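In response to the reviewer comment on reproducibility (Comment 2.3), we provide here a single inverse folding case reported in full, input and output, so that an independent group could reproduce the run without further information from us. The structure tokens appear first.
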């Protein structure tokens, strides 16, 4: 007859549970930190690339690197960045990275290109979380909403939707997004005017 040695049951104690939880937490934190360090630089480079593409869209033709030395202005709710686009010594315009916190889904960011006289050259959406099929129509390629701003000077073009007695034809069923877009463009122009 074969005799088996009974395996001693190891009872869980509070100390062993805390130690196990500590080890699991420590390993998880180390892995998370490693992933962050590995992805931090590629994310920064991707954001910089997107920013440079937006600058090129709103102030085309420059031969300098405007994103190298932006001017920064702190305004209520955040910061605005000013990128001077030049061809040789000639200033072609200024791209202003602006924002609004009043979109339907909260914050969104725009890049607004201004000619040296303050006329709007073009506008590009950098980041948003607006409703697909409605508020996201502020993006080029999804509607012609942004075209109405091109070539307009904010001193002569009221940057408000028509419902608010402005000159901007709002996106259908997206008045909140349209108002916020106008607010972001106006914020950029006001700050640029003060910077000059």
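Designed residues, in position order:
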């Amino acid at each position: 007859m074969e005799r088996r040695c009974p395996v001693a049951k190891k009872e869980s104690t509070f100390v062993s549970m805390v130690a196990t939880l500590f080890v699991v937490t420590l390993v998880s934190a180390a892995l998370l930190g490693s992933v962050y360090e590995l992805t931090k630089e590629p994310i920064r480079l991707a954001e910089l690339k997107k920013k440079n593409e937006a600058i090129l869209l709103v102030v085309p033709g420059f031969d300098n690197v405007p994103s190298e030395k932006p001017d920064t202005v702190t305004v209520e709710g955040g910061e605005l960045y000013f990128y001077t686009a030049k061809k040789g010594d000639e200033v072609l315009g200024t791209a202003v990275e602006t924002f609004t916190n009043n979109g339907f889904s909260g914050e969104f960011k725009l890049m607004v290109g201004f000619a040296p006289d303050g006329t709007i050259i073009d506008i590009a959406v950098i980041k948003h979380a607006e409703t697909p099929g409605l508020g996201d129509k502020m993006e080029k390629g999804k509607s012609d909403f942004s075209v109405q701003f091109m070539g307009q000077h904010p001193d002569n073009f009221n940057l408000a939707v028509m419902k608010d007695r402005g000159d901007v034809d709002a996106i259908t069923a997206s008045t909140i997004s349209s108002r916020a877009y106008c607010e972001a463009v106006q914020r950029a122009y006001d700050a640029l005017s003060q910077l000059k």
